[in-house]
């Protein structure tokens, strides 16, 4: 089944060129199927790249999904075309009286900014609080996951001695979880962050389950016991070249970054990166949508 997105969204042409089935709004209107309504709060400065990454993952499912993009009203992004934002993004005030099957909150390059000093922190808190009653299940990614864990449970972040950048092995701790159906016991995933959380802080919160972790970066994937919130600290949505672009960006800034771990063959940046996380990424999003959204969300999402 296809993913339903606006006809003129740039990702449409990109996904079609990759032989991914997308459906225009006009065609979807003529099908008697209720799509899953998924809202994406895109906090990344690279809006279009992040759109493409997430839509690739959401498209790999037999479900029809209607995707809408949300932006913050309290902070205007500096590195994206204004026309693009006006054409394809909405604000919280425009959706606050609606209900959604799923919500995805992306990461943001804010590792060293105290949460209360983030320009849009109050607005983000309002959205996360609203999601408790208006969203069936929410997936938080990287900084979005750290922010969600801090907001909902007061879990603090800890700074690493050096940036965690590369492809690391992660261990499935709860093999019976439907989120990991089809996963190997150990799976590779890109990590790109300067901060994380401690397992002992997670253990203090009875509403949280730690279901995957990594030796290098600690807790990797967590969920609430009611499955309404998922917190993913790795980047299984990353493209093959995302870590490379980040590495070259930091290198050009004179930050002397380490070569991303286990990413280039022989740790040689002149060689093409090897993707070892694509299947896990497809499974993560497909399983979340199927088992935690589609299978349990009511047909009339506005009448729960």
Automatic annotation (TrEMBL):
Q: What is its EC number?
A: 2.3.1.46
Official protein name in the record = Homoserine O-succinyltransferase
Top-level taxon? Bacteria
Looking up SUPFAM superfamilies in the UniProt record yields:
Class I glutamine amidotransferase-like
Q: Where in the cell is it found?
A: Cytoplasm
Which CDD domains would you find in this protein's record? GATase1_HTS
Q: Which organism is it from?
A: Eubacterium ramulus ATCC 29099
Q: Which UniProt keywords apply?
A: Acyltransferase, Amino-acid biosynthesis, Cytoplasm, Methionine biosynthesis, Transferase
- Positions of the record's site feature: Important for acyl-CoA specificity: 111
Quote the gene name from the UniProt entry: metAS
Q: Which InterPro entries match?
A: Class_I_gatase-like (IPR029062), HST_MetA (IPR005697), MetA_family (IPR033752)
